[in-house]
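The following block was generated as part of the benchmark described in Methods. Ligand: magnesium ion.
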Amino acid sequence: MATATLRPCGDFKSRYAADQTIFPTVWSRNFCILGVVLVAAAPFLVDRYVLNLLIQIGYLGIAALGLNILVGFTGQISIGHAVFFGFGGFASCFLNSNAGIPPVLSIPLAGVMTTAVGLVFGIPAARLKGLYLAIATLAAQFILLDFFGRAEWFTGGSNGTVADPVSLFGFKFNHDESYLYVVLFYVVVLYVAAANLMRTRDGRALVAVRDYYLAAEMMGVNLTKYRTLSFGISSFYAGIGGALYAHYLGFMSIEGLDISFSIQFLAMIIIGGLGSIMGTLMGTAFMVLLPQLVNFLARSLDGSAIDHALGLHEGLPFLREMTIGAAIILFLIFEPDGLAHRWKQIKAYWKLYPFSY
Amino acid sequence: DYPIGHLNDFSGGTADVGKPYGQGVDDALAYINAHGGINGTKLAVDATDYGYQVPRALAAYKNWTGSNKVVAIMGWGTADTEALVKSVTDDQIPFVSASYAGTLTDPTGKGGPASERAAPYNFFYGPSYSDSARALVQWAAEDWKKKGGQGKPKWVHMGANHPYPNAPRKAEEEYAKELGFEVLDPVVFALTPGDYTAQCLTLKQSGANYAYLGNTGASNIAVLKSCETAGVKVQFVGNVWGIDENSLKAAGSAGNGVVFPVRTAALWTDNVPALSLFKEIAKNSDPSGKEYKAVHYLAGVCAAFYLKEAMEWAAANGGVTGPTIAKGFQAKANWVPKGTEGVCKPSTWTAEDHRPTLSVELYQTQVTGPTDSGTVSELIAKGTMKLNKVATIELPRKKEWIGY
Amino acid sequence: MGQMSAATAEMPTIATPAEPAPLLTVNNLEVVYNDVILVLRGLNLKVPEGEIVALLGANGAGKSTTLKAISGLLKAEDGQITRGDVLFRGERLNGLDPDQIVRRGIFQVMEGRRIVADMTVHENLRLGAHTRRDGGVRDDLDRVYGYFPRLKERTGLAGYLSGGEQQMLAIGRAIMARPKLILMDEPSMGLSPLLVKEVFLIIRRLARDLGLTILLVEQNARLALEAASYGYIMEQGKIVLDGTADALKSNEDVKEFYLGQGEARKSFKGLKSFKRRKRWL
Amino acid sequence: MDLHLLLQLSINGLIVGTLYGVVGMCFVLIYKASQIVNFAQGEFLLIGAWVCWWLLTKYHLPFVWGFLVTLAFMVAFGFLLQVVVLRPMIGEPVISVIMMTIGLSIFCQALMKWIFGVLPQPYPQVFAVKSVNIFGLEVQTVYLMAMAISLVIMVGFAWFFKMSRTGLAMRATSFDQQVAQSLGISVRQVFAVSWAISAMVSAVAGVVVGVVNGVSSALSFFGIKVFPAVILGGLDSIVGSVLGGLVIGVLENWAQFVDSQFLKWGNLYEVAPFYVLIVILMIKPYGLFGKRDIERV
Amino acid sequence: MLTFNEFKGSRGFREGADARQRGGTKGGDLPVTTDPVLVARDVSIRFGGVKALTDVSFEVKSGELFSIIGPNGAGKTSLLNCISGRYRPTAGSIHLLGRDVTHLKPNKRAAIGIGRTFQNLALFGHMSVLDNIMVGRHHLLKNNFLSGALYWLGGAQKEELAHRREVEDIIDFLEIEAVRHATAGTLSYGLRKRVELARAVALKPKLLLLDEPMAGMNLEEKEDMARYILDLNEEWGMTIVMIEHDMGVVMDISHRVMVLDFGRKIAEGLPADVLEDEYVKKAYLGEELPGLEAEEAAA
Ligand SMILES: Nc1ncnc2c1ncn2[C@@H]1O[C@H](COP(=O)(O)OP(=O)(O)OP(=O)(O)O)[C@@H](O)[C@H]1O
Ligand SMILES: Nc1ncnc2c1ncn2[C@@H]1O[C@H](COP(=O)(O)OP(=O)(O)OP(=O)(O)O)[C@@H](O)[C@H]1O
Ligand SMILES: [Mg+2]
Ligand SMILES: [Mg+2]
């Protein structure tokens, strides 16, 4: 009988605990630890530009992980993630400037508040499936965005609102060099939490709901609860991501929280790999770095011989956009299951998604 | 070299106006470099098209403040300017935006009662959105009298519920009330074009006399067209980015008669000596020199030239750094960059007040035929499209108007 | 093993020289899933025109995989033929798209029914005839309804049919296609004993009356060998035994493990105390 | 209450709604053939509008000819897409293909901006009579044309899916590509046909919007705007998409009415359809005409 | 893969199993206890015009192995669906362990103790076999998304491992050790059926519903499956309701048999008695049908 596992030979587990770890191999665990250490050392190695990218990958990666829990693990597509991200940002600013709660506390609290909102918008999830639900989340996108624009008490209306920098015992994390650690802390904690969640009861229930909800229900899984819950969890992550973003910028406004931002989150998780935790981070990195890379290429092209020969100068910005589009397309043609697929060499979950049930 | 950052939008949501403006800045900076730079030192301009996406602007900013820190930035839109206010203040980098929001005009944070925060490193060239809107209100009040209108004229603000269209709303509506207008509830329409017949029908029914178009070109065009079909008879007035030669071409006859502010004292086709400099500058991107350049182009060139002279002042007064450039802006009063007299309007920045000018030129569009064939240059040359000056409004420099 | 030829990996030895070339030949086929899981390891098989050939084997032996390799449906499951070839009337089918293979006259009744749930029974049957251009569709519809009267009563969506009704529909769809060769994957699955018999009757009739050739994968070995003229037994991705149906029926191992007629045969109830594993290799 | 205004708004809603319906049908067509939600639909509109504009202004073709050439071009474009982009994705997860349409929309958007510029362009006068007066409301002639065309298309589609072989094949393909292939259906062909038709019909809508508002890249936003319409009608129902379009169109206008007369919110027009959408979905989870999932174990 | 020998000792589940007498019962022997686990009264269900079930009543006693047979489309699966909660009967009631469950949601019923397998496989295709089975433990586990996310801190780890041990027992029992980490969707048909059974067993059900567990199996595998079912019934003490078309199996292992046809119950009783029923012979077994040889001869 063929075993479909792709563990390295000789990697036998002699205890269940060892068989239940987050990391399939020792190697992968060490690799992750090395990654964290490298990022932690980054302020001493690279300049602010790179730090900024790392921080972006961090807070977007947290929010994207939330979306992956919703879409990748529970099988509910959402095209409204950006507003939950935004809500977290506004909530933290609100708590910070109106209630005087320091950002250290307001960030997690904002996560909790966003969870509550997510749960409310998750109510339709109990009844709606597939793309119908997706469009309901699109409605959430428009409704919440409209709310942001109008609720001056909460968001400062269309003018936006300001946020204090994060500070702990008098130390202000107000530069990229220091803020990186705040983001890194949250990334590590929340990614580990998600990995844990997925190997325990409720995480499995979420995946079961995705794969075959009728069977899941008959195995004792409360569909309504888990469908709504996944919105809650997803919003929590989005909220934390948004709050981190707000305190990083020191400012939060509704501009930029539009559908295309929501879609960008989707791109991150699809490219990273649906239903893959590490893949989420990779996908986020891809989406953050791709424009930078293309920008860099465009710049080095600008004024070069090729540019003159083809008269590209005028078209460079468009060429850049096109490259981003084309990169996504090509990527999906060659790696339709996402980066995580390649990374782990394990057949991803998503062959038939979302219509397998 | 002096490193300079330039954020522009040639490809994103505001590219329709971002293109001519950014082109103006680009050409001007190239011209400056070709003619000796800043007292002999060239500008190392790093232009980034950020496609009107804040995160990308942010990344670019971080890039510029990394190892080789820029001394000044030519910026663009509302969203990114707002997002960067705090950073540029902390990093002491003068930021010349094309967002003219009133909130950027208060360098101390204690300006007017409505002022929210300090923005000491934010500069722009031209009247603020709020002041332009006030000027339009004032013009409308005079226009109403002149036309012999009876009773209270009705004023309505139109635009999306977004930072940019909303920026002048408070100032505009307050001033309108002050001048005896009845201010109706705003009509909201999206920043994207669409069919706005419904809005126009309600606009018509509301009986408004003056309608302020707060959005950018494409969506304003859609409104103008829809309202033309719906048979709305309203005097439209527009924001600086709301209408220009290009959008006028797209709007065609529907765009006829809109009154809007222009930041320069002259248009491309006017007979002003300094325009020859602008035409020289334009050769950078249009060697033929035949193309007509829109109002935004001129404004872009002016903005770049103000920066240039501020830098020159800095070079002569302690070296070109962020703080000295900012001082350079504030060193003179009512000044015009050399060679642009008669085009760029005299401007003044002080340590307490970053409103460069309160004198607003108002123009009115005129369309006499179909605009669908031919380029803008041709249509202007033929006179099918015209911009006619209707007034220059001089607003009082009130302290309580600082910051909004 | 008497008159039976033991199948070897190198060379299949069923056909006597005088026989005409078989309709379908599978040579030394190797199939890999996901680039790593080797499932078929050099499989050889021949299906002569107009005959019914049975393919038997344990769960996971690779029977369904074999059929999918022939019909080209492997691709959709990330499977791949890495060696060997499939010849239909001498033409190589490897690498063709499934729909092209259907157009050449090979139709598969897939495991697990796989009917189009959100269409009616009638539409499903019409779909079966998708590649047909002749005018006999109407007659064949009547034929199918004649075989399975129960289907005619079901006017709703096919997805609401009972398991057995869906199985009937799946078989009916194959009849509608009127191919040269039908690959049947467990046609009797989920059918009542009465219908199992009927289905085998139908299979026989199709082969006899319409001249169809059938490659039959079936767990009900007794009926399968009754209907078929030739049989293969596969295990772990290889043919381990083959021969005419009669020869197989009288083979001791086949009797014991597939037909339940060995000496050791007990009632299901009594089986629990001992456990065997067949080893034919 | 101003009844005359309400009447005018209602008519306007119906007219705009038809346009939503036309684009909605294109969505449904692709969805029915492949379960893919095409996020590049808006770009199809845009491409159609630009191409037609280009033919009309650069070559001064008469409108009818320009229009027909545009349609032919869009068919070719749809085929091309299928060959270059979609064919490799056959058998891949649907969500990846959906993502791919997003990539496609980014790509086309930029390409159009590059070719045609970022400035909005007006269409030449197309019809001698620009508008017709209906109950005191000036209705653009081109809208009436759109209504007529969409009716024809709708009837055609309905027949197509119910009766024709290709229609059946499309439905089977969307249900399960592997099954469809096993029945001898060429998934490529199905994709090609559906994308080509969808691109073509989108172009109709694109040209109409272009004639009314002028062409600019923002026109592609239409693609997102019709989502509520399509969902309201039911993702897989042609008739539903048209009705959904009409409902959303009228709703928007009524919202505008309620807003301007009573509520004074400002942008009820934009969000009201989404509130209604959620309410309707809570009552009818598959839209008005959508087919329920088969839940049988 | 190692077979976790060190935990072999901890099979509390099957304690005393060997002590019990085995193999002695023949078809028809009644089980030890007699209190009904399941009582269905006048259950009817209709779908539009189709009357899938009409007034079906029956009882299943504790420890019983009860089989349901009947022609295709007779309503067997529908009946199972009514019991497990997928369908809500249009009339009638269902009692489980003395409790009226007619209006209970399926997940609640699972928690009471109904486990089932499905006719058209319903595994979680993208999950590993192990995770599939662990989902069966859902209602037995206590950790939630908070303690789960904290894992090491909230006791989730301990609990998960304890349950993993029991699940490994089931895996051992059903002999699917080799595919433990395989993705369920890639297994062959027969193996999937076995994994499904494992998942249902993991629920620790008091009543186990099996929908055609032998479909798609060859004789030998049927024998294995029959052995598992008997073990579950006799050693693990589960009450079982089974739908099956293979009469050999049904007659050999079930205690009682019920026959459905066109949604009505037409017979119920000991296997041997039911087999003698004329109607069953004709409409279900098709004994009047000619064999293939006869057909051949006639042609
Ligand atoms: N999509 C797939 N990915 C990976 N492995 C697969 C896949 N499909 C089948 N397999 C493996 O290939 C082997 C053969 O499977 P196949 O379905 O051909 O068996 P079978 O002989 O038809 O068995 P059954 O009688 O149970 O249907 C099995 O071990 C199975 O796990
Ligand atoms: N959800 C449903 N909607 C409509 N009809 C249904 C539904 N469920 C079952 N039916 C019908 O009820 C009848 C009984 O179906 P059921 O699945 O219970 O049969 P079954 O006895 O299990 O048959 P088989 O042995 O073939 O599996 C069938 O004719 C089927 O078409
Ligand atoms: Mg099989
Ligand atoms: Mg059944």
